[in-house]
Amino acid sequence: MKNKLKYAILTLFAAFICYHSSIAQQRDQQAVTIAVDLNKKTGTMYPFWAWFGHDEPNYTYMKDGKKLLAELAALSPTPVHMRVHNLLTTGDGTPALKWGSTNAYTEDANGKPVYNWRIIDSIFDTYIKLGMKPYAQIGFMPEALSSHPQPYRHHWQPGKNYNDIYTGWAYPPNDYGKWEELVYQWVKHTVNRYGKKEVESWYWEVWNEPNIDYWKGTMPEFFKMYDFAARGVKRALPTAKIGGPEVAGGSSQSGMKFLRAFIEHCISGTNYATGKTGSPLDVISFHAKGQPTIADQHVRMNMAPQLRDIAEGFKIVASYPQTKNLPIVIGESDPEGCAACGMATNPSNAYRNGTMYSSYTAASFARKYRLVDSLQVNFLGAVSWSFEFENQPWFFGFRDLATNGVDKPVLNVFRMFGMMTGDRVQVQSDRMYGVKAVIDSGIRGAKTDIGGLASKDKRSSAVMVWNYHDDDLLADAQPVSITVNGLPAGKVTLTHFRIDQEHSNSYEAWKKMGSPQNPSDAQVKELEQAGQLQTMGKPEQLKVTAGQLQLKITLPRQGVSLLKMSW
């Protein structure tokens, strides 16, 4: 009898444990709840994401460069802005990694300037024909103007010493008057070629990351170079918009110190070119980067330093009454620093080909909107320093949007953003990490970050949802329940776009082919198709009850969905 009773008790205890274990598992798999209220506007869905850039300007007018630019122009509801380095660098226009040239300025045997705009025109013509806008970078130093010209042309390759890139182009001018005249002649030429109204719609900015080795002069020498450049711009077109300083790391000590000093120079410093007080400043720029690492044999992202750079940069600009309302551009805003450092030489960059890059992009850009809301700054654009690399191995792991003319998953996030227009509206999720928490420690918790960004226009609404975690590990898909309130129609057409292992993912398609480095024409066509934004099934008509719609999806880890509703 005792044994039977003992057995019964043990059985009940085991059942109790199993029951509660089952309840715990069910709780873990209970749907994440996201609530969208279309009647609560939080801001405008201004496409600050429609800004892109790269080191190698000569890719612009090459085969794959033109193809990608056309795709970028097509996906944005407003003109896309392009920023490139090396627009004044001396050379024959032959591209290489982290190198480009235009030969815009040389000198004859008597030291007289010779201007040649042919290559720059090829670059800007490509933009203008596509309805894009140059975010025109004034730099780098032509060889004939460099105060330390030799060595000039670098031949850096991934895995080599990164400091090898900082050669004669990074030095101050040997003649500030000639430097100013070069800038004046360039801006004057653009006005003659494209018209005053067109050039007035551009932004000009001086140099790149002067707080690190991109500038081999002192801080005062940079201010002097800026002042002469600004005077050259304004002489050619008084209504032109110019700014800087494009510092690296808005939250780093050197970045904050340089940004503050630059702003104060432009407000109240003595202008080196005019002798008057202050210098023209129409746009303020700084850079923001994340910091991935390898942890336990997998990539671990870190969004914290990137968002910290943005927050601190915003705060610095807002702290001066003279600049708090000026437009801000994050001139480079990326998961890490070196676009041309592939995953073969930098294993922590292995996130770039697959859905890790796309989910990080969705989650980080949504936080930029929230930072703008909280700090009330005039945010104009965030440049994704990612484009394409001509004639390089397939899926080499560069930080690019396409490889050999085939779009990578990250480009489809920007296609999703392009369908989000009108106002931003309130989104609440019970699994979205707060901005402060991300800045403090990244997204490293036991649970993934499942959040949303939503928009409402006159006849449509869109909800972007992501399932992101800093650790690039596989995990079960998560059920998500989305409630949309405030729909003005009795019926909507729902289209569900998706980026995951099976959708909008050329990289997974390429791996299934056996990772060919010389794919056939038929394989290239298949990869091009796989690289486009794809849907989960076909659009469907759904009934709206009392202005509310309930949607249920299952979202894989590192997946991104866009739920587009039209009426």
Overview of this protein structure:
This is Xylan 1,4-beta-xylosidase. It comes from Mucilaginibacter pocheonensis. There is one protein chain. The protein has 567 residues and is an alpha/beta fold. The chain folds into two domains: 27-42 and 422-566, Immunoglobulin-like (Sandwich), CATH 2.60.40.1500; 46-418, Glycosidases (TIM Barrel), CATH 3.20.20.80. 32% of the residues lie in helices and 24% in strands. It has 13 helices and 24 strands. The chain has helices spanning 2-28, 63-75, 118-129, 176-194, 196-200, 219-236, 253-268, 304-318, 355-375, 409-418, 435-441, 506-512, 521-530; strands spanning 32-44, 51-54, 81-84, 105-107, 113-115, 133-138, 203-206, 241-247, 283-289, 293-295, 298-300, 328-334, 379-384, 402-403, 406-407, 423-429, 449-456, 460-468, 478-485, 491-499, 534-535, 540-543, 548-555, 560-566. Strands 1, 16, 17, 18, 19, 20, 21, 22, 23 and 24 form a ten-stranded mixed beta sheet that branches. Helix 4 runs parallel beside helix 6, helix 8 (304-318) runs parallel beside helix 9 and helix 8 (304-318) crosses helix 11 (435-441). 49% of the residues are buried.
Average of the residue pLDDT scores: 94
Oligomer type = single chain
General form: globular
Radius of gyration: 26 Å
Major sheet description = 10 strands, mixed
Q: What is the class of the largest domain in the CATH system?
A: Alpha Beta
CATH superfamily of the largest domain: Glycosidases
| Helix percentage | 25-40%
**CA-to-CA gap between the ends?**
71 Å
Low-pLDDT segments = 1-28
Q: How many domains in all?
A: 2
**Number of alpha- plus pi-helical segments:** 13
CATH architecture tag of the largest domain: Alpha-Beta Barrel
Bin the strand percentage: 15-25%
CATH topology of the largest domain: TIM Barrel
Total number of beta strands: 24
What structural class do you assign from the helix and strand content? alpha/beta
Family: Belongs to the glycosyl hydrolase 39 family.
Organism: Mucilaginibacter pocheonensis
EC number: 3.2.1.37
Protein name: Xylan 1,4-beta-xylosidase
